TrEMBL record:
UniProt keyword annotations, A-Z: Cell projection, Cilium, Cytoplasm
UniProt entry tagged with the keyword Lipid biosynthesis: no
Record-level GO cellular component terms: cytoplasm
UniProt cross-references to NCBIfam families, sorted A to Z: choice_anch_D
InterPro entries xrefs: HYDIN_VesB_CFA65-like_Ig (IPR053879), Ig-like_fold (IPR013783)
Organism ancestry: Bacteria, Pseudomonadati, Pseudomonadota, Alphaproteobacteria, Rhodobacterales
HYDIN/VesB/CFA65-like Ig-like domain: residues covered: 196-290
Subcellular localization(s) per the UniProt record: Cell projection, Cilium; Cytoplasm
Main location class: other
Protein name: HYDIN/VesB/CFA65-like Ig-like domain-containing protein
Domain of life: Bacteria
Keyword Transport (UniProt): no
Length: 411
């Protein structure tokens, strides 16, 4: 359902404003109950902040609307989804001509309870009780009773005016340093944009991503005794740590970095945990992932001896990628000897014709280097081809047949 909850809240507050001179009972009438029920249909709790926000602009003068969880007063399509489904509003409305104020609690959860107290008495809003009326001349204090991610504050009402104090709280948010993309608490989203996907890294190499731990609350944030931890330290290491028990001022930032250094090939995952005194996001966790790539192995074949002008085939088909679902590419290059022309230097088995040598010429050695690429890493191997000259055949002397002649005969 896609309702404008701001309009609903304003309608509820404006309706309440017309009640004057009478203390509102502890039980809501049918209209306000209907409005509250409609509010509860719009989402389920996912508290993300613990800073109180004064939303006075949502109601009439001399009335207060405080958002007890979120840091925004606008409920519309521009607000992140998690903000739209986890707001907890407290309406504070003067009861005219008295020193009293009504505390009306509008919750999306139904399980948050707040104790309201003053010198004249006390009450609890939450559950089935949505309204408490108290004399706030000496100050009214609201504090959590159970189930709440909430910072206590004090509301003081006198005559027709009121004011709020307190509401300070730390608020941890984690972002990717590269483009400041927000990584929510409990996030299992793995993308390169967030920096949670380290991509494919060859074993023996590494990749490092940096993050920002921001305090967007209104008071200092204190990290825990073990501020930053990673569940898989075999493949991931912290290279820039958060300070254990250190503090970050309001609006301050601490950077940290994580290195992916796969020990073996395959998909590697880990959970990053940050401990702090953020009262609704401790621990703050998010998932990271990387893929380890095994180095390919190049095999250019065995060294060979061939004759002058022989047809020769190089054999690189013994090369392997060492990872499933990878296809190797081949690149041959001659690095020594008289130049020859390979028929296809990107084939696993290119051919060429050996150089022509004359009798008596010295043998020549041709050297070829094979480079294979699996898409992430390369490997090389070399092979030598020795070309021999034609052998020199021994001459044959023919003196003719033996003869017998008479003395004096010319031969």
């Amino acid at each position: 359902m896609n309702f404008d909850r701001l309009a609903i809240l304003q309608a509820a507050a404006n309706w309440c404003r017309h009640v004057s001179g009478v203390r509102v009972s502890f039980t809501l009438n049918a209209l306000f109950s209907t409005i509250l029920s409609l509010m509860l249909m719009l989402g389920s709790p996912q508290a993300a902040h613990a800073a109180i926000t004064d939303c006075t602009n949502m109601v009439s003068p001399n009335e207060y609307a405080l958002n007890l969880i979120q840091d925004t007063c606008m409920i519309n399509h521009d607000v992140p989804y998690e903000d739209q489904i986890s707001d907890e509003f407290l309406f504070i409305q003067p009861v005219y001509d008295t020193g009293d104020a009504n505390f009306r609690f509008v919750s999306n959860t139904g399980d948050l309870f707040y104790h309201v107290s003053s010198a004249s008495g006390s009450g609890t809003v939450g559950g089935s009780t949505w309204v408490v009326t108290l004399d706030c001349n000496a100050g009214c204090t609201v504090s959590p009773v159970a189930g709440a991610s909430f910072v206590p504050f004090t509301y003081t009402f006198s005559g027709t005016t009121g004011g709020m104090s307190g509401g300070a709280a730390p608020e941890l948010d984690v972002r990717n340093s590269a483009d400041n993309a927000d990584i929510g608490d409990g996030s299992t989203t793995i993308t390169t944009a967030l920096g949670t996907d380290f991509g494919t890294v060859t074993v023996g190499s590494n990749a490092t991503n940096s993050f920002r731990a921001e305090n967007n609350g209104t008071s200092a944030l204190t990290f825990g005794a073990d501020a930053l931890a990673i569940s898989n330290t075999t493949d991931f290491q912290i290279t820039a740590d958060l300070t254990n028990s250190g503090t970050v001022a309001s609006s301050g930032v601490n950077a940290f970095s994580i290195r992916f250094n796969p020990a073996t090939g395959g998909t590697k995952t880990a959970t990053v945990t940050i401990r702090s005194d953020d009262d609704d996001e401790d621990p703050y966790t998010f998932s990271i992932r990387g893929t380890g790539n095994n180095l390919p192995q190049a095999d250019a074949g065995g060294n060979t001896v061939v004759a002058s002008e022989d047809d020769v085939m190089l054999i690189g088909a013994g090369s392997v990628a060492n990872d499933a679902d990878q296809t190797l590419t081949y690149a041959w290059a001659q690095t020594a000897g008289p130049a020859v022309a390979l028929d296809d230097d990107e084939s696993a088995t290119p051919s060429f014709t050996a150089p022509t040598l004359a009798i008596g010429d010295a043998d020549v050695t041709l050297t070829f280097v094979l480079t294979v690429d699996d898409g992430f890493a390369t490997a090389t191997d070399s092979v030598t081809i020795t070309v021999t000259a034609p052998a020199n055949a021994a001459p044959l002397a023919v003196a003719g047949p033996d003869q017998s002649v008479v003395s004096g005969t010319q031969v």
